[in-house]
C-alpha cells in the first residue's frame, strides 16, 4: 500500500488493508485483512469510532 | 450472515482488551476490535481527523469482492444504530443477488417491495410502488 488513499468512493475497489485486533470471542489478539475476508467470501462492515473508553 | 463487523479506532489492541474487559456495556461484544494506530486505514476511508489523531464515526460496507458499497460518516457526538446498519447490509445482500432491482427508501427486509427500473417506470414510480 504505497499510495495514500484519502476517502474512497462508493463503487470503488478497496485496497487491501491489515489491522491488528483484539478478539473478545477468543480473549486473544489477532489480525484481520481484507484479503482474508475476500478469500472467505465474507462481507466486511467497518465501524470506526474516535476512542476506547468513550461512548460508541 | 456471511458478514463480519470489525470495529476500528486508533487505540492499541491492548487498550481494546482493557476497555472490553472493564466496560460492562461491552460484556457481550464478539466482534474483532481493530487497531489502526498509524491512522492508515482511517485515512484510506477519509475518516482520519488530523487535528485530533482520532477516527470519525464512519461506517463502511465492503462486498466479498472487495468493493465499497456503503459509506456513512457521523460527527463526533452522534451515535449509530445497529438497525440502520443491518437494513443497509440486508439490502446489499438482496441487491447482490438481484442486480436488476432497486431497494426503495421504505425497504426494510427480504420480502419487502423492490422496484425494477425500466422505461415504463419513468414518472410512474408512485404507480409501480402501489402495484403488488
Task: Provide a descriptive summary of the structure in words.
The complex is a heterodimer of chains A (56) and B (132). Chain A has 56 residues and is mostly beta strands. Chain A has a domain at 17-46. Chain A has one helix spanning 34-39, and strands at 18-23, 28-33, 43-48. Chain A has a two-stranded antiparallel sheet with strand order 1-2. With 132 residues, chain B is of the alpha+beta class. Helix content of chain B is 28%, strand content 20%. Chain B has four helices and six strands; from the N terminus they run βαβαββββαα. In chain B, the strands form three sheets. Chain B has a two-stranded parallel sheet. Chain B has a two-stranded antiparallel ribbon with strand order 3-4. A two-stranded antiparallel ribbon of chain B has the order 5-6. The two termini of chain B are 28 Å apart. The mean pLDDT of chain B is 91. Classes of the chains: A mainly beta (56), B alpha+beta (132). At the A-B interface, strand 1, strand 2, helix 1 and strand 3 of A face strand 1, helix 1, strand 2, helix 2 and strand 4 of B.
Average pLDDT metric of chain B: 91
- Mind telling me the C-alpha Rg of chain A? 14 Å
| Residue runs with pLDDT of under 50 for 5 or more positions of chain A | none
Biggest sheet of chain A, open or closed, and with what strands and sense?
Answer: 2 strands, antiparallel
Count the E strands of chain A. 3
In which order are the strands of the major sheet of chain B placed?
A: 1-2
